[in-house]
Amino acid sequence: MKLQAGKEETKLDYNQDFAIVDDVSNVKEALDTMIQNNLRLLVIQKGGNPVGICDSHLLLMQTGRLDQKIVYDTEFITIRDHQDFSISVHDFSYALIVDGKNQIIGWTDGKSVEIDSLKLAYSKDMRAMTTDLEAIVDSIYDEVLVVDAQGKIIRVSNRSTNNLWGVNLQTVIGQNILDLEEKGWFKPSVTRKVIEEKKKISIVQHNRFGRKILAVGNPIFNRKKELVRIVIASRDITEETRLEKELEEAKTLKEQYRKEVDILRKVHQGNGKRIIYQSEQMKNLMFEVERVAQVESTVTIYGESGVGKELIAHSIHQLSPRAEKPFIRINCGSIPENLLESELFGYEKGAFTGALGNGKKGLFELANEGTLFLDEIGELPLNLQVKLLRAIQEREIMKIGGTKTIPINIRIIAATNKNLEEMVTAGTFREDLFYRIHVIPLIVPPLRERMDDIEHLVYHFLEYYNDRFSTKKHFSEDAMEMLNAYKWPGNIRQLQNVTERAMVITSNQMITANDLVKILENRKKSQNPVEVHSIIPLQIAVQDTEKQLLHLALSKYNTLTKVAEVLEVSQPTISRLYNKLKNNMGV
Ligand SMILES: Nc1ncnc2c1ncn2[C@@H]1O[C@H](COP(=O)(O)OP(=O)(O)OP(=O)(O)O)[C@@H](O)[C@H]1O
Question: What is the number of the ligand 1 atom nearest to the C-alpha of 495?
């Protein structure tokens, strides 16, 4: 904006408190110009000619709207110095007086407002605005401080009484904020950083009461770009941080639950048998299961008998992209050795005496594009371990009696309750097969190491058998305590059997600890019925006991499944035993 001072030499009695400007953008700029220069009139010119007038009267009416654009609607005439004129006659608000060179040298009117009234109105307005601004600042920040370039506190906001620092802030005016940092009132100092870096800084401070404070330091520079002030706005964010953390935790929890529900849903839909778990160990295992399901790598599941290895293997299949394809389980321990090869690989017609007319597909071929579950892999005879390894490695098989190879695309999951590494050392398991299948080992912990699961499993089996037997039985509190305290050597299979037996033998709706004692005691007795009266080789003692047990169980029950159940071993184990005894000694 170009400002020209009024000419002083004139013969007429007219006002000289005016300025000629090219333009002013808003009311505030016009006001500032007039107040700072003590003017009552701004003459706006374009191309050297006056085009509008802004007077103190016009501005006085607009002090409440400082950012508004000025509309110069005041009427004026231009008259030459010495010319005889009368404003009222011409009915104009202003007359601008020009000299012989057409330069404006003064003005006159009948109604102009004194500049002092304008100043007064303006300062009142500014006071109101300051109050508003303070209110705004107070509601956004808990505390606003202004310090000088050395950190001396010059000003504090109104509301800052004794909040963030625990003192009345009015009492710290004049102190150096850096000293207060040294005293440990808060840490770190945003002022120090702004002084060092000369730019706006936001940091999170901790005050001496352990609160978290967001402090924003804004540097103010003078025209020479020197730092003159720092405005520090602070807000207590302890609560927000806590809420944010809680929200974050809730989100993580939600995500975890979503995954668990996902797993459960898929697993449940798959085989109708739900995997029940609550313990951290099982949660971690199930996350692992979900992860490995997505890759093709061979998994070997380790764990004691009855811990749920097969259930886990099935879940991996259900969660994998092969879910729609077959899941074929081979009990490496239950198929007689001489049949295992034909079971695994199949045979062509007429391959051997007794072979089916059209030949037979092996389990490998049946599992094509799906998953092959090699249960009890530790029971696989050494000679078949070689053939299995070849099939896995070469991804093709040849049927017995066949001449051409058949490509197979299967995912292998193995399971065992044996320590395969020890078997490798003992020479009963091939090292090369071990490394081929031990790519991703999963360990299912025994039930005694995840006691948190017991109650959930008990309720699950109760519900299952109540449904099956159309009963409404439940365990008393002391029975539940007993189940929780028991060590479950037979793991979940045993827990399931005990629950079933308790429900069958108890006539009352409530199953008590006494009822359970009978079942668990029975188990103890039946586990120790062997009395040894002379020293005999251990192997013979074991074989004899196995033989007697099997005889007894087979005389009472018709199926190997039932025999396995009452002897509390897996079905593969009992089949293997049966075959061994049948071949060697004739059961
Ligand atoms: N987490 C579980 N939730 C519900 N049922 C389970 C769970 N784990 C195991 N079971 C049940 O316990 C029984 C034994 O499980 P599974 O056959 O999978 O164990 P395993 O480790 O493969 O045993 P084995 O080594 O003797 O073959 C099954 O009836 C199975 O459904």
Answer: 12
For residue 437, count other CB atoms closer than 10 A to its CB: 22
Alpha-carbon dihedral sign for residues 29, 31, 37, 42: positive
Architecture of the domain whose range is 4-121: Roll (3.10)
**Residue from 493, 565, 567 to probe ligand 1 pocket by mutation (most atoms less than 8 Å from CB):** 493
Q: Which CATH code is given to the segment(s) 141-236?
A: 3.30.450.20
pLDDT tens for the 587 residues of the chain, in order = 334 444 444 455 778 888 888 877 787 788 888 888 888 888 888 888 888 888 877 777 776 677 777 777 677 878 777 665 554 545 667 888 888 888 888 888 765 566 677 677 777 766 776 677 777 766 667 788 889 999 999 888 766 555 677 777 778 888 999 998 888 888 889 999 999 999 999 999 888 888 888 999 999 888 788 898 899 988 888 888 888 888 888 888 787 677 656 655 555 544 456 789 989 999 999 999 999 999 999 999 999 999 999 999 999 999 999 999 999 998 887 777 777 788 888 888 766 665 566 778 888 899 999 999 999 999 888 888 888 888 888 888 888 888 888 899 999 999 999 999 999 999 999 999 999 999 999 999 999 999 999 999 998 999 899 988 999 998 998 899 999 999 999 999 999 999 999 999 899 889 999 889 888 875 555 445 565 655 677 877 787 788 878 877 887 677 888 888 888 888 888 888 888 777 665 44
Cα angle value 416/581/556 (rounded, 5°): 95
Distance CA 553, CA 561 (A): 11
Specify the 3-state DSSP secondary structure of 408.
Answer: coil
- Which residues are CB-neighbours of 297 under 8 A, at least 6 positions away? 439, 440
Ligand 1 mean position, distance from CA 519 (Å)? 20
Confidence check on the interface: ipTM exceeds 0.90, yes or no = yes
Q: Is the CB of 264 under 6 A from ligand 1?
A: no
SS3 for 434? helix
* 42 CB within 6 A, ligand 1: no
CATH superfamily, with its number, for domain 277-445: P-loop containing nucleotide triphosphate hydrolases (3.40.50.300)
Q: Is 303 in the pocket of ligand 1 (CB under 6 A)?
A: yes
Q: Is the CB of 310 under 6 A from ligand 1?
A: yes
The dotted CATH code for 451-584 is 1.10.8.60
Ligand 1 neighbourhood includes 308 CB (under 6 angstroms): yes
Spatial distance between the Cα atoms of 520 and 528, rounded to a whole number of angstroms:
13
d(CA 400, CA 413): 24
